Amino acid sequence: MGGKKKLSLKQMERMQMRKAEEEKKKKEKEKAAAKEKKLTGIFVPDVKEGKILEELKKMRVLTPYTVATRFNIRISTAKDFLEQLEDDGLVRLVSGNHAIKIYKAVD
Q: What is the pTM for the complete model shown?
């Protein structure tokens, strides 16, 4: 009649071995991923420091992604940081839309 065929002992052993190996590999990947993960700061860099302004002037264009990677902060924090700099008059908006804005440092 219908139904699933009963596996032999050898086939069941192979399935168990494969399952154990897959779980072992999965655990190793999780450990490796945990080690590679780096924490990013959520604090806005201090604008009054001269080093930060020098770094910004060296960069040709300022996008939230470039600022976030340079100062190791989150992109949302970088967006706020760039808006703050624009309000202070240290950078000016070159182009942008609702998704991304491009700034340039004022000389």
A: 0.59
